[in-house]
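Tutorial, part two.
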Amino acid sequence: MRDPYDVLGVSKSASAADIKKAYRQLAKKYHPDRNRDDAKAKERFAEINTAYEIVGDEKKKAQFDRGEIGPDGKPKGFEGFGAGPGGFSRAWRSSSGPGANQHYEFNFGGGGGQGGAGGFDPSDLFADLFGGRRRAQQTPERGEDVAATATVPLETAAKGGSARVILPSGRTLEVKVPAGVEDSQQIRLRGQGQPGLRGGESGDALVTVKIAAHPYFRLEGRDLRLDLPVTIYEAALGAKVQTPTLDGKVELAVPAGSNGGRVLRLRGKGLPATESKPAGDLYVALKIMLPEEPDAEFEARLRELRERHHYDPRRKMG
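Running the prediction step on this input gives:
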């Protein structure tokens, strides 16, 4: 048998609370219910319980520390038979160490229970041992958490709403989506995971929110980006144009002389603010568009402009 302190991974000076904590962690890890096909785990579980029966009991711990009992819980130094009808006894005296000059006598008799004031009843030890294992097996255990994904439209992420999610068990739930939720943010549903063992509480369901792609807006954190088509004369002369946002259309001022790709910012028009994060912004990139259908007069004006006002936008590129 190994030293019970080594089995539990604690020092000899560890407190009762630390010993109990170490025992619970190891017992949960190697419990037979969680390791049904692992024979070594079952042996480890038995070893953990035996160790805790020694150092988890104040009296037995003191006896072990004094060297009176071994790591298996049996008294040290008793051997031989012949103390009377149907039993045996052994006297043992310590002459050195912490238990010096102390006398211990163990009597296993067939006629008298514990065999006197100094007697030892092995049935108590086995009752404690197997009773400890039984208590460990009956300890409530929390159920496992489960993971699921809910995909929602950008508008739902911004304004809040609900989404339907299917758990690994096949069960369908309606999830409340808070306003301003970000992509890949998790929502915890208490008690919606795997059921607990032996009366333990159920685990949770961890739902990851995924925001679906939008036909116009691109999501970057809490900000939104939008490519806004404008005419060549709106970009050249400046204009006020209608721009979509999550709250509806607003009027955007396009400065005169704007080139394609110029980015204008609308503050606070991204995802709305939450208790912990400010509102995002909407970044609008201008995209100069020509007429969809050819127009002879328009093309003639452009040719005239090319001849009278020629310029080279690539001159700085070498």
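The two ends are 84 Å apart (CA to CA). In part three we will examine how such features are distributed along the chain.
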